[in-house]
Design goal:
heterodimer; A: alpha+beta; B: alpha+beta; 12 strands
Chain lengths: 180, 296
């Protein structure tokens, strides 16, 4: 009984925690090390893109370049170019994603890693579903709920937004980094 | 006994990559050495966990390359392109076809891996050429050791089962690499193993979520049926009646079905059985085929 009372008192507070699924997988530095373990330095080569350049990217890639600066690093080993790593973000139906794309000096994709993933609700949070979260939880569990975020099983979300993003970044590589 | 709290929070390596047309998340807890002892240093543990996760992603990419309907050069596409001919197929493709055929028969064709033609006709899968039947039956697939043949020009699609199967293969890869606990979530096809209980939520049609509790040593899959073709949520479930119809009406009001089972391939396939069975038979049919239905 005592627990139930305490739970009731805690509900308004915990309801402030966004129930979205969110996870951080790698920092920019960790992704750089993973893709280019032999690199001695990563040279910030961020591209500033004017309107004409962004139009050209959209024309070639088929998707809009939202940002007017595109984050990218050149991986070097004693002055030798090992490749490039882009960091970019895309927005899907339910998700907001930051990802890294590694490209070889010849323009081949070396890998894609999601750096962080945030899934948000499309609709209102139903009160009943909130209460379900507390079923079977002890008071100690309840206090941790903010961190203890559930994995989500739902209808499969397409990764098309990332696939389109990769194509856009490969076009940027072709236009501005191929001969850099 | 391992500290499940530590496994659940601290000592865990987690990665996500775009694969299988969706986002695949793989998490690994403690990694055992050959001698069975848990690695001492955090750096060693991290490296071993990363290598294990890489092998799990490789296992998924391998299944994708073999069983993709979209890719014209996959083993599945080659089989679909050559009805009437025996073709050599790999161990995984053979096993997938065997499981899909068995589930097709056992579910009275509610799950039906031969309706690729109907999905092509809806524009939800690519047409790689040639004439095809919209839908067939389990007997259209003939299997022998190391080879497969389609008796009629049906188009086999393993989309209802291969994602779950890929998760099972990737879990096997994690275990093989010495990972003692972990989970994989391939766009909603989820499986967890070892000494951890993973809190899971179901995302419903309207985008809201509800907690389903914690999953331990089990698989969970969720499908949404009805509502037609949506580029962001590409799953399309066609039943025996709707597969033949040209209307895009789908199978009625959109609804979400989750199924818990021991293996991810089975949970994946049974969500389709749940979506297509009459409401009054749903839970019982799923239970008879080895799953536990969670309705919206």
């Amino acid at each position: 009984m005592k627990h139930e009372m305490l739970l009731g008192a805690l509900l308004p507070m915990t309801a402030l925690v966004a129930p979205a699924y969110s996870a951080d997988y790698l920092t920019v530095e960790q992704a750089q090390r993973q893709f280019f373990p032999n690199a001695s330095q990563f040279v910030d080569s961020t591209l500033d893109l004017d309107d004409d350049q962004r139009d050209q990217i959209k024309e070639r890639a088929g998707t809009r370049q939202r940002r007017d600066n595109q984050r990218v690093w050149r991986a070097e080993q004693e002055g030798k170019n090992l490749g490039w790593m882009f960091v970019d973000d895309v927005i899907g139906k339910h998700e907001f994603i930051t990802y890294a794309l590694a490209v070889s000096p010849a323009g081949e994709v070396l890998g894609v890693e999601i750096l962080s993933y945030r899934e948000t609700h499309g609709g209102e949070v139903r009160e009943a579903s909130w209460r379900d979260q507390f079923n079977g939880k002890t008071l100690d569990d309840t206090i941790r709920l903010g961190k203890d975020v559930s994995n989500i099983s739902g209808a499969t979300l397409s990764c098309r937004n990332v696939t389109d993003g990769v194509r856009r970044l490969l076009n940027i590589w072709d236009l501005y980094l191929k001969h850099a | 006994m391992p500290d499940s709290q530590a496994v659940g929070q601290g000592a865990q390596t987690k990665r996500m990559r775009p694969l299988l047309g969706t986002f695949v998340e793989i998490a690994a807890g403690a990694v055992k050495t050959a001698a069975g002892a848990v690695e001492a240093t955090a750096a060693d543990r991290g490296t071993r966990a990363e290598a294990a996760i890489q092998s799990a992603f490789d296992a998924i990419a391998n299944i994708h390359a073999l069983a993709s309907f979209q890719q014209a050069d996959s083993e599945l596409s080659r089989l679909n392109a050559s009805p009437g001919q025996w073709l050599p197929v790999s161990r995984h493709t053979l096993r997938l076809l065997r499981l899909a055929r068995a589930m097709t028969a056992a579910s009275d064709h509610l799950f039906n891996c031969t309706l690729g033609g109907a999905v092509i006709a809806r524009g939800a899968l690519p047409d790689h050429g040639g004439d095809y039947l919209k839908i067939g039956c389990a007997d259209d697939i003939e299997l022998e050791a190391g080879r497969a043949r389609l008796a009629r020009p049906v188009r086999i699609t393993l989309d209802g089962i291969a994602k779950g199967y890929a998760v099972d293969c990737a879990i096997a890869a994690l275990k093989c690499a010495g990972v003692s606990s972990g989970w994989i979530n391939a766009g909603g096809d989820l499986r967890v193993f070892g000494d951890m209980a993973l809190p899971v939520s179901q995302r419903r049609v309207d985008g809201s979520t509800r907690s389903l509790g914690a999953l331990q040593n089990a698989a969970l899959a969720t499908s949404c049926a009805g509502g037609g073709v949506d580029a962001d949520v590409p799953g399309l479930i066609l039943g025996p009646e709707t597969a033949d119809a040209d209307s895009a009406a789908g199978i009625g009001k959109p609804a979400t079905f989750s199924v818990i089972s021991r293996f991810a391939w089975r949970a994946d396939a049974l969500t389709k059985v749940a979506a297509l069975a009459p409401a009054s038979e749903r839970a019982e049919r799923v239970a008879r085929l080895g799953g536990l239905l969670i309705e919206e």
